[in-house]
Prior knowledge:
The protein has helices at about 30-45, 70, 75-80, 90-100, 120-125, 150-160, 160-170, 175-185, 195-205, 210-220, 225-240, 245-255, and strands at about 5-10, 15-20, 50-55, 105-110, 115, 130, 135-140, 175, 190.
Amino acid sequence: MTNWQRLKITESEGIVTVALNRPEKLNALDILMFQELDKVSRLLRTRKDIRAVIVTGEGGNFSSGLDVKSVATSPKKVLGLLKKWLPGNANLAQRVSRNWRLIPVPVIAVIEGRCYGGGTQIVLGADFRFTTPDAELSIMEVRWGLVPDMAGLLSLRELVAKDVAMKLTMTGEIISGERAQQLGLVTEIHNDPLSAAQTFAYQLCQASPDAIAAIKSTTNKSWVRSERALLAKETFSQLRLILGKNFKIAGIRQRNNPDRAYQKRQSFW
C-alpha cells in the first residue's frame, strides 16, 4: 500500500490489520503517527475489496496516548493537529478517531495493556472494541488541563449515559477492560482479543458487503437523529440494496449455493 514508519499494515482474505508500531514508546502518538493513521484510514475508505479492519497496537499495548515531549512542547506541532478551515470540520487530531466511522466496513479495535488519552479516543471511533480483562483505559486529557478533543465523544455519547461520560472525562480515571465492559465502553472481553477479533471479522465476511455497509451507515447516521430521519434512512438504504447484485447473490447463498462469492461493495456506501 505504501511505506509506513509508525504503522504495520497486514492484509489477509479481505481483512486489513492496522497496528500502531512504536512499541519502544508504548505506541505513543507523535505527529507522524497521527499523519499515518489519517492517511491509512482515508485509503481504506476507498477500497471496495476489503471486508473488515482490525486496529491494534504492537508490543502488548494499544497506546499510552499523546507523546507529550514530542508534540506538546512545539506550538507548531500543536497547531498542526488542531487547525481546521471551519469549526465543524475535523482536524488531524479528530480524524484519527472519526475516520474509522466513515469506512464502509466493520472496524474492530483490539485493546491490550495501556490505552490512555488519545489511544482511548482512537478505539472509541471503531465499531467494536475487544479487550483483555486487565487492559487499562482512560480518557486522560483533563489531567493536562484539556478537554477531550479527538472526536471520541462522538462515540462516547452513543455508548454510555451522560453522567458516566462526564465522570470518565472529568476524572481521567483509569479503568480495567472488565470495568469498561460493565460501563458499555467495550464490546467483548477475551484473553486473546486479537484472535477473537479475527474470528469475528471472518464471520462478518460471510455477509453481503453491501448489507454490512448499509447497516453501518444507517446506524451511524441515524443513531441520534429523529424518528423520521431514521425511517427515511432505512428505506433509502433498503432500496439501494434490493437494486444491487449482492442482494441477489445473498438469496442464492441462502437457497442453494452457500459458497457463491459476493461481488465488491457498491461504490456509493
